[in-house]
Design a protein that fits this description.
- The complex is a heterotrimer of chains A (about 270), B (about 300) and C (about 400).
- In chain A, about 75% of the residues lie in helices and about 0% in strands.
- Chain A has nine helices and no strands.
- In chain A, helix 5 (about 120-130) crosses helix 6 (about 140-170).
- The longest helix of chain A has about 45 residues, at about 225-270.
- Chain B has ten helices and six strands, in the order H-H-H-E-H-E-H-E-H-E-H-E-H-E-H-H.
- In chain B, helix 1 packs parallel to helix 10.
- By secondary structure, chain B is of the alpha/beta class.
- Chain B folds into two domains: about 1-50 and about 270-300; about 60-265, Rossmann fold (3-Layer(aba) Sandwich), CATH 3.40.50.
- Helices cover about 55% and strands about 10% of the residues of chain B.
- With about 400 residues, chain C is α/β, with parallel strands linked by helices.
- Helix content of chain C is about 45%, strand content about 20%.
- Chain C has twelve helices and 15 strands.
- In chain C, about 40% of the residues are buried.
- Classes of the chains: A mainly alpha (about 270), B alpha/beta (about 300), C alpha/beta (about 400).
- Chains in contact: A-B, A-C, B-C.
- At the A-B interface, helix 3, helix 6 and helix 9 of A face helix 2, helix 4, helix 7, helix 8 and helix 9 of B.
C-alpha cells in the first residue's frame, strides 16, 4: 500500500514536471513568433492544458485512473455550468426579456421587441416545471410537462407524418425496370456506372424488397410462418445489412474524431506536422 | 515523402497484424489494449507522414456541389452550424468547403446556428476564412451572421414564416433592416438553398422536416458519419444531396480544388484525414478477419 | 451566356442610383439618345392572381417573356416588377429578377407596422419592366389589374396529410377502445421475451442477480414506458424465483416509477416482504458518470443477466461491451436506431425498435399500448398495399397515383 502511494506520488510529480516543461517550451515557441509575453504565457498554458486533458482521457484505454477521473469530472462540471449560462442568456435574456420588459432588455443590452403578454405563458409554465424541486408543489410540474408533451406531439405528428411517412411512402414508388427498352438493349448496354440502367434498376429492387420485407418483419399481428416467415427472414437480413452499414459509418466517425485529437496533439501542441 | 511514408506505415501495421494473426492462430488471448494501440498507430503514423489518397466525388456529394454551382451569382445560401466542438473535426471541413464555394461563386451567405456551441464556430469561420481569404466581401452585403437562438425546431417553425419574429438583429446587435443583405428577405422561403451541417438534434433531419419540406425549399446537408445512414432515405427527393462524414467532406474538397484553381493551395483537412482513416479501416477489417479466424479455430477446438 | 451574367452583375453593382433613375420614368416606352441599345419588346400576357393556400398578403404573377429575351435582339438582361394602387398612381418596385424569369410570387408582410406590409382585399395594378444593359433603355408592359390578395381558411395542398391523420387517429382510437373493452387483439410472441424468461432461470441457477438498466430516457419517453412493463414482468419472475435484482437509475423521476413497478411486481408475486428499497436506486444524471457507475456494478456484482431496455445513446456500446466482458447474458431493446447496431453486436438478444413496444404490449396487455401497436400494424399493412399499387402504377407508366401523395406546401 505504501509502495503504491509512493508510485502515485512519483507519477504525479512527473506529470506536473512535464506539464511545466511543455508550458515553458510552448511559451518560448509562441513568443519566438513575435507574440507579446502575456499572450504567449496564456496561449501556451491553454494549449498545454488541452493536450494534458486529451491525454488524460485517452489514458482510460490503458485503465481507469485518477487523471482520467479528473478530466471527466472537470468536463462534466464545466459543461453543466456552460449549459446553464447558455440557457440563461439565450432563453431568458434572448427570448423572454425582449418580449416582456423594456427595462430588463435595456439592462441586459438586448433590443426590446415590444410588450407581448403571451410570453407570460411560457414564463409561468417554466416556473411550474421548477416546482418539481418542492415535495408539496411537485404536482404542478406535471401540468407544464403535459403542455410540452401535448404541443410537441401535435407539431411533430403533422411534420413527421408528412415528411417521414407520406413523402417516404411515395418515395418508394419506383419503377422496377428503369428505362426499359427490352432484354437485348439491357444486356448490350450493361454498365456498372452509378447512374447506369443496371445500377438504377438494382437500387430500385433493393428499395422495393427492403421496404416490403422490413415492414413484414415489424408486423406483429400475424405469426411469422410460411410466406410471412420467409419474408420476415429476408427483412431481418435487410435490417442487419443496414446496421452493418451504420456500424461502419460510426467507425469512420469515431476514427475522424481520433484523427482530430491526434492532429491537435501533433500540430498545435508538439508542432510535428504543419 | 508520401509514398515512403505509406510503405513505412503499411510495414509497421502489416507486421503487427501478422504478429496478432500468429498469436490468435496459436490460440493465445489478444489483449484489448493491443487493439487500441493498433488503431492509435494506424491513425498517427499516416498522419505524421501526411499520407493522402485521391478522392472522387460521388453523385450524392456532386448533387450539392452542382446545386451551388448552378445557382446564379447573388443567390441566397443559408448555412446553419448545428454542431459543437466535439463534432467539429468531422464536420468543420464541410462547413469550410461550403463557405469557400458559396463566396467564390458570388452567392450571398446567411450564417446561423441552431446549437449554442455553433455560434462561436461561425465567428471563428468568419475570422479565419472569410476575412482572410475573401477580404473583398462586405459584411451585411455579401454575408451575415445572425447567430444562435434557443428553441431548436421552434426557431425553424418561426423563421419559415418570418426571420424578424425570431431575429431582430444579427449577432453583433445590428438591426436586420439596416443590413443590405436582408433587403427583401422575409423568411426562409426567400432562400435559394438551405444547408445544415450537424449530426445531432436539431440537425439536417430537422431542417428537412421543419423547413425544407414545408417550405418546398431545396435543402442539403453535411452530417457526422454516425447519422448519415439515417439521412440517406431522404435523398434525392427531400434532401438534394448529403455529405456523410469526413469522406463526404474530402469528396467535396477534391471537387472544389478540381473546379476552382484559386483553391489549389487551400487547406484540405477532409482529404488529409482520409489517409489515416483509410489505414485505420484496413486495420479494423483485418481485425474482423483475424477475430473470425480465431473464433472458428477456438470453436473447432471446443467441439 | 457568361457575358450576359457579367452584364447582369455589373448592372446590379451600379446599384440604387440606376433603379431610382429608372423609377422616375413611367412612360410606356422610353427611349433615350444613348441609342447604343435598342428598346426591347415588352413582355406579354401579364397575369396576377391571389396566391393559393396561404394566409393572404401574397399575389402570384406570370407572364410570357419578351421576344428579345434570349432571342430576337437578345438585349433583355432582366425584369423589374412594379405595383400601384391605381392604374395612374405611383408605381413602386416590388422585385427584380434575371432574364428568362416568367413568374414571381409577390409576398408582403401581414403586420401593418412592417415596411413590407401588403394589405388584403385591396385593388393592386401591376406592370413588368424589361431591362437592358443601358439603365435608361427599357420597356414597360401593359398594366394588369385590379387584383386582390386574400387568405384561405383551408390549405387544399395538405389534404393528403389530413386524410392520413384522420385515418390513423381514428384507427388508433377505435383499437384502443376495443382493447379497453376486453377484445382479444392478437400480438405474436416475440423470441426476445422467451430469452428474458430463460435468462431469469439461468440467474436463479447460478445464484447471481439480474441487472436491469432503464436507459437515459425520462419517465415520459415511450421507450421508458415500455421498459417499465418489461421490468414489471422481470421483477415478478425474480420475486418468484427469489433471485436478486439491481436497477440503477439515471433519472430521479424514472427511479420513482421504477420503484413502484418493482414493489407492485413483488406484491403480485406474493412476496412483498422480499422487496427492498435498495434494489432500485438513483446514480447520477451525468451520462458517462452513470455509465462508469453501472460498469463498476457489473464488474463487482458479476450479474448473470444484464437487461437494457429503454432509450440509449452513446453509452450503449460501453455498457454492452463491459457486460459481455464480464460474461453476463445480455438482452437489450431500444428505439434509438443509431444505437441498435451496438446492441446487436454485443448482446445475445436485441429487441429492435418497435419490437420493444410490441414486447411491452404483449406482456402488459395495457390497452393504450396494445391499441397503438395494432393501429401501427394497420398502418404498415396500408403502406405495403400502397407500395405495391405504387410499384404497379409506376411500372405501367401511370404517374397519377404518385401525384395523390404530393403535398404542395
Amino acid at each position: 500500500m505504501e509502495g503504491s502511494k509512493r508510485l502515485s506520488a512519483i507519477i504525479l510529480a512527473v506529470v506536473i514536471a512535464l506539464f511545466l516543461v511543455s508550458w515553458i517550451v510552448k511559451g518560448l515557441a509562441i513568443s519566438d513568433s513575435g507574440a507579446a509575453l502575456w499572450f504567449s504565457v496564456r496561449d501556451a498554458f491553454f494549449i498545454t492544458l488541452a493536450a494534458f486533458l486529451t491525454l488524460a482521457i485517452l489514458s482510460f484505454l490503458y485503465k481507469d485512473n485518477p487523471y482520467y477521473k479528473f478530466a471527466e469530472h472537470l468536463f462534466v462540471g464545466v459543461s453543466a455550468a456552460y449549459w446553464m449560462c447558455v440557457g440563461f442568456w439565450s432563453t431568458i435574456v434572448g427570448n423572454l426579456f425582449p418580449n416582456i420588459s423594456e427595462s430588463l432588455s435595456g439592462y441586459f443590452d438586448v433590443p426590446y421587441k415590444g410588450f407581448n403578454p403571451f410570453y407570460f405563458i411560457p414564463l409561468i409554465l417554466g416556473i411550474m416545471l421548477l416546482m418539481r424541486l418542492s415535495a408539496r408543489a411537485g404536482w404542478m410540474s406535471r401540468w407544464a410537462l403535459a403542455w410540452i408533451v401535448g404541443t410537441t406531439s401535435g407539431l411533430n405528428l403533422i411534420r413527421y407524418l408528412r415528411t417521414d411517412f407520406i413523402s417516404q411512402v411515395s418515395n418508394t414508388f419506383v419503377p422496377l425496370l428503369v428505362d426499359w427498352k427490352g432484354v437485348g438493349p439491357f444486356f448490350s448496354d450493361l454498365s456498372l456506372s452509378a447512374s447506369g440502367q443496371f445500377t438504377m434498376t438494382l437500387a430500385n429492387w433493393v428499395i422495393f424488397v427492403g421496404v416490403f420485407t422490413g415492414l413484414i418483419y415489424f408486423f406483429f399481428s400475424k405469426e411469422h410462418k410460411g410466406f410471412f416467415g420467409a419474408a420476415s427472414r429476408v427483412g431481418i437480413w435487410v435490417l442487419m445489412i443496414t446496421f452493418g452499414a451504420s456500424f461502419g459509418y460510426t467507425v469512420m466517425g469515431r476514427v475522424s474524431l481520433l484523427v482530430g485529437r491526434l492532429t491537435y496533439l501533433f500540430r498545435d501542441w508538439l508542432g510535428l506536422i504543419s | 515523402m508520401s509514398s515512403v511514408g505509406l510503405i513505412i506505415s503499411l510495414f509497421i501495421i502489416g507486421a503487427g497484424l501478422l504478429w496478432l494473426l500468429i498469436l490468435s492462430l496459436t490460440g493465445r488471448e489478444v489483449e484489448r489494449r493491443i487493439v487500441f494501440l493498433f488503431i492509435g498507430l494506424a491513425v498517427s503514423v499516416p498522419l505524421l507522414f501526411n499520407i493522402t489518397f485521391s478522392e472522387r466525388a460521388t453523385p450524392i456529394v456532386l448533387d450539392v456541389f452542382d446545386k451551388l454551382e448552378d445557382l446564379p451569382p447573388g443567390s441566397k445560401v443559408l448555412l446553419s452550424y448545428d454542431y459543437g466542438p466535439s463534432m467539429a473535426p468531422e464536420v468543420e471541413p464541410m462547413s469550410n468547403a461550403f463557405l469557400r464555394h458559396s463566396l467564390a461563386k458570388g452567392h450571398k451567405l446567411y450564417l446561423m446556428a441552431l446549437w449554442a456551441t455553433g455560434q462561436s464556430l461561425v465567428a471563428t469561420a468568419v475570422d479565419s476564412i472569410i476575412k482572410r481569404e475573401f477580404p473583398d466581401k462586405v459584411y451585411g452585403e455579401d454575408y451575415v451572421n445572425i447567430g444562435f437562438k434557443a428553441g431548436g425546431t421552434g426557431v425553424l417553425n418561426v423563421i419559415i414564416t418570418d426571420f424578424r419574429k425570431m431575429y431582430l438583429t444579427d449577432v453583433d446587435g445590428l438591426d436586420l433592416d439596416s443590413l443590405f443583405i436582408f433587403d427583401g428577405v422575409k423568411s426562409l422561403r426567400d432562400m435559394d438553398v438551405l444547408i445544415s451541417i450537424g449530426g445531432g438534434f436539431p440537425g439536417v433531419k430537422e431542417w428537412v422536416l421543419f423547413a425544407g419540406a414545408p417550405g418546398n425549399i431545396p435543402t442539403a446537408g453535411g452530417c457526422a458519419a454516425v447519422s448519415a445512414p439515417l439521412l440517406y432515405p431522404y435523398y434525392p427527393r427531400q434532401l438534394l444531396g448529403l455529405l456523410g462524414g469526413i469522406k463526404g467532406a474530402a469528396e467535396y474538397e477534391s471537387e472544389l480544388k478540381k473546379r476552382y484553381p484559386r483553391f489549389e493551395t487551400m487547406p484540405t483537412p477532409g482529404i488529409k484525414m482520409m489517409g489515416p482513416q483509410t489505414l485505420a479501416h484496413l486495420v479494423v477489417m483485418a481485425f474482423i478477419v483475424i477475430g473470425n479466424i480465431s473464433y472458428f479455430i477456438s470453436r473447432r477446438k471446443r467441439s | 451566356m457568361k457575358l450576359k451574367t457579367l452584364i447582369v452583375l455589373s448592372c446590379m453593382l451600379l446599384g440604387g442610383s440606376v433603379f431610382s433613375a429608372a423609377q422616375e420614368v413611367t412612360d410606356a416606352t422610353a427611349l433615350t439618345d444613348t441609342a447604343a441599345v435598342a428598346a426591347p419588346r415588352p413582355i406579354a400576357d401579364l397575369f396576377a392572381r391571389d396566391s393559393e393556400n396561404d394566409h393572404g398578403h401574397s399575389l402570384t404573377l406570370s407572364w410570357t417573356i419578351s421576344p428579345d429575351d434570349g432571342a430576337g435582339q437578345m438585349n433583355v438582361i432582366g425584369y423589374e416588377l412594379y405595383r400601384a394602387l391605381s392604374p395612374d398612381g405611383e408605381f413602386e418596385l416590388r422585385g427584380k429578377f434575371p432574364f428568362g424569369a416568367a413568374s414571381y410570387i409577390d409576398v408582403g408582410a401581414k403586420e401593418k407596422e412592417s415596411s413590407q406590409y401588403s394589405p388584403d382585399h385591396t385593388d393592386f395594378y401591376y406592370k413588368v419592366r424589361a431591362l437592358t444593359s443601358d439603365p435608361e433603355v427599357f420597356t414597360d408592359s401593359e398594366i394588369f389589374g385590379p387584383v386582390q390578395s386574400y387568405g384561405q381558411w383551408f390549405n387544399t395542398g395538405r389534404i393528403p396529410v389530413l386524410v392520413f391523420v384522420i385515418g390513423f387517429l381514428t384507427t388508433t382510437v377505435i383499437l384502443i377502445r376495443r382493447a379497453r373493452g376486453g377484445a382479444d387483439l392478437f400480438v405474436r410472441r416475440l423470441p426476445g421475451i422467451e430469452a428474458v424468461d430463460e435468462a431469469i432461470g439461468r440467474a436463479t441457477e447460478m445464484g447471481k442477480p439480474i441487472l436491469y438498466v432503464l436507459g437515459l430516457g425520462t419517465a415520459a419517453d415511450i421507450a421508458t414506458i415500455a421498459s417499465y412493463t418489461i421490468l414489471g414482468r422481470v421483477a415478478k419472475k425474480v420475486a418468484e424465483y427469489q433471485t436478486g435484482l439491481i436497477v440503477p437509475c439515471y433519472d430521479p423521476v424514472t427511479m420513482t416509477v421504477a420503484q413502484e413497478t418493482v414493489k407492485t411486481a413483488y406484491a403480485d408475486a406474493g412476496r412483498p416482504d422480499a422487496y427492498s428499497e435498495d434494489m432500485v436506486y438513483f446514480v447520477t444524471q451525468s451520462q458517462f458518470a452513470y455509465v462508469a457507475a453501472v460498469n463498476g456494478t457489473m464488474l463487482r456484482e458479476r450479474p448473470a443477466t444484464n437487461i437494457y431496455m429503454g432509450k440509449f445513446f452513446a453509452e450503449s456500446l460501453i455498457l454492452a461491451e463491459t457486460g459481455a466482458f464480464a460474461g453476463s447474458i445480455q438482452i437489450s431493446g431500444t428505439d434509438e436506431i443509431a444505437q441498435i447496431p451496438f446492441f446487436v453486436v454485443a448482446c445475445d438478444y436485441t429487441l429492435i425498435g418497435e419490437e420493444l413496444y410490441a414486447a411491452s404490449a404483449y406482456l402488459g396487455r395495457e390497452p393504450l399500448l396494445l391499441g397503438s401497436l395494432k393501429a401501427q400494424d394497420y398502418a404498415k399493412a396500408a403502406v405495403i398495399l400502397l407500395a405495391i399499387i405504387g410499384f404497379l402504377t409506376m411500372n405501367f407508366g401511370l404517374e397519377g397515383f404518385k401525384e395523390l401523395f404530393y403535398i404542395s406546401n
